[in-house]
UniProtKB/TrEMBL annotation:
GO terms for cellular component: plasma membrane. Gene3D superfamilies: Amino acid/polyamine transporter I. It comes from the Bacteria. The chain crosses the membrane at residues 34-56, 62-83, 104-129, 141-158, 165-189, 209-231, 251-272, 298-320, 354-372, 378-397, 418-436, 442-462. InterPro entries: AA/rel_permease1, APC_superfamily. One of its GO terms (molecular function) is transmembrane transporter activity. The lineage of its organism: Bacteria, Bacillati, Actinomycetota, Actinomycetes, Micrococcales. This is Amino acid transporter. It is found in: Cell membrane. The keyword Glycoprotein does not apply. It is a multi-pass membrane protein. Pfam families: AA_permease_2 (PF13520). Its main location: membrane. Keywords: Cell membrane, Membrane, Transmembrane, Transmembrane helix.
Length: 483
């Protein structure tokens, strides 16, 4: 039986605004967008937390793993850049997938981000006490997380330019910490650069180094991809970036490139400058151990406090992204009108989606009470699903529909379709390795369940509501006067 075609989306009044009826403040330049995006990635906390865990598990394989992960991340960044240039609309992955692959896939990606963004904020919040604790004894992780997330949510409700300045100041501190870490390694090199090219990890049985197998190297690549994640966050601020159709791709690509360099350089410096690789890989916290050995206890405390500030900065940036995700979905009528109406409003004072930001902040606060292992498992494999949807969208985005015109002045990735194809192959490899590893089954199962819930939401609600999830076209991205 043929389903009747629903009526087209309601006419959208774009005469009053160039931001799809929302009055978001188009006052960010490319630099401001990159500052907020890099803050959400938090290269410093990635090096200390994810990079440190990778050193302990994969040894010198971290160099090849993070290098290959950097190549894959730049390919995915090309996908984000072209998709964002064609659809410079707030909402991140959800808006891109929704407009290219349709509302069913869009609902799946919306569910991924709706669940994982608050969970990531909760994970970061709980981790703040570990680093602040070196300077302030007796901090309770739960209360620290609740206070930090509440303050970050309030900050994320300020106007976008204020947030760019706040996150930029924090970002300067964490990039300085990374530069100092790299300097410590490079001024006291203990082994030749060729040592980086031989993947070896600590053998628990012998206490010495042993060759790292292909499976271990693939897992190191996976860790690197997760560590670099977040450059696509530039799309969340597309409606607040001037001349977005022509500049949003630069924000994405610069964010990805800076992240890869900012993480792989200090990790390489640590591998070259550590007194003993066996001791480094055997340490409970390899990066902190190297830092203390090279700079002393007092300087180490200062750097670790800087990392705590970097984590707080990341929470602010992710709170900004979370608010725009919920705002964009509400504006698309991807939820019942009684819920969507208040969430799709903009504060007339700050021109920010304050209600949507607060709601996502409250969800993040509630997530702090979820057991930490569940938080980690629920976010561990969702990234591969998100990247998979983005790569597929980048493959089909150049397909012309009847009556569709190709936007002018946008970014077109070089060597298309090679970047999304290679990215999909890499993502498929990660899935295969995850399926073969029983330790990854829970994480993969939770991620697959979230995606399935999104498709089920489409089947049970969106498909039967013609007014829901209508696609807003980005028909004008010229800047508004900055007030």
């Amino acid at each position: 039986m043929t389903t009747p075609t629903p009526a087209g989306p309601p006419a959208l009044d774009t005469a009053a605004t160039t931001t799809h009826g929302a009055q978001l403040s188009r006052s960010l330049g490319v630099g401001g967008n990159v500052l907020i995006t890099l803050s959400g990635i938090s290269p410093a906390s990635s090096v200390f937390i994810l990079g440190g865990a990778a050193l302990a598990t994969y040894g010198t394989g971290v160099f090849w793993g993070f290098l290959l992960a950097g190549v894959i991340s730049l390919l995915v960044a090309y996908c984000y850049a072209e998709l964002g240039s064609r659809h410079p609309i707030a909402g991140g992955d959800y808006t891109l997938v929704n407009r290219v692959l349709g509302p069913a896939a869009g609902a799946a990606v919306f569910f991924i981000n709706l669940i994982t963004l608050p969970l990531i904020v909760a994970i970061f919040g709980i981790g703040v006490a570990d680093y602040l604790g070196v300077a302030i004894a007796g901090l309770d992780p739960m209360w620290t997380a609740l206070i930090v997330i509440a303050l970050a949510t309030v900050t994320a409700c300020f106007n976008i330019r204020t947030n760019a300045w706040v996150t930029g100041a924090f970002l300067f501190v964490e990039m300085a910490a990374l530069a100092f870490l790299a300097l410590l390694g490079f001024i006291h090199i203990e082994r030749p650069v060729t040592a980086l090219l031989d993947p070896q990890a600590l053998d628990a049985a012998t206490g010495g180094l042993a060759p790292l197998g292909i499976a271990g190297l693939v897992l190191a690549v996976t860790q690197g991809i997760f560590s670099y994640n977040g450059y696509g966050g530039a799309i969340y601020f597309a409606e607040e970036t001037r001349n977005a159709r022509r500049t949003i791709a630069r924000a994405v690509l610069w964010s990805a490139l800076i992240t890869v360099v900012a993480e792989i350089v200090p990790l390489s410096a640590i591998l070259l400058g550590a007194d003993s690789l066996e001791e480094l890989f055997g340490a409970a916290l390899p990066v902190e151990s190297f830092l203390t050995a090279r700079s002393g206890e007092a300087v180490s405390i200062v750097i670790l406090v800087a990392i705590a500030l970097a984590i707080v900065n990341a929470i602010i940036a992710i709170a900004l992204q979370s608010g725009r995700l919920l705002f964009a979905a509400a504006r698309d009528q991807a939820m019942p009108a009684a819920i969507a109406r208040p969430l799709a409003t903009i504060s007339p004072t700050t021109r920010m989606p304050v209600r949507a930001t607060i709601v996502m902040g409250v969800i993040a606060l509630a997530a702090c009470f979820v057991p930490f292992d569940i938080l980690l498992n629920a976010t561990g494999s969702t990234l591969a699903f998100s990247y998979g949807f983005i790569a597929i969208a980048a493959l089909v985005v150049r397909r012309r529909r009847a009556g569709e015109t190709v936007p002018t002045g946008g970014f077109r990735m070089p060597l298309w379709p090679a970047p999304p194809v290679v990215a999909l192959i890499a993502i498929a490899t990660i899935f295969v390795v995850g399926i073969l590893d029983p330790a990854q089954w829970l994480s993969l199962g939770l991620a697959a369940g979230i995606v399935a819930a999104g498709f089920l939401y489409y089947l049970l609600y969106l498909r039967s509501n013609p007014g829901a999830a209508h696609l807003l076209e980005a028909d004008d991205d010229e800047p508004e006067p900055v007030k």
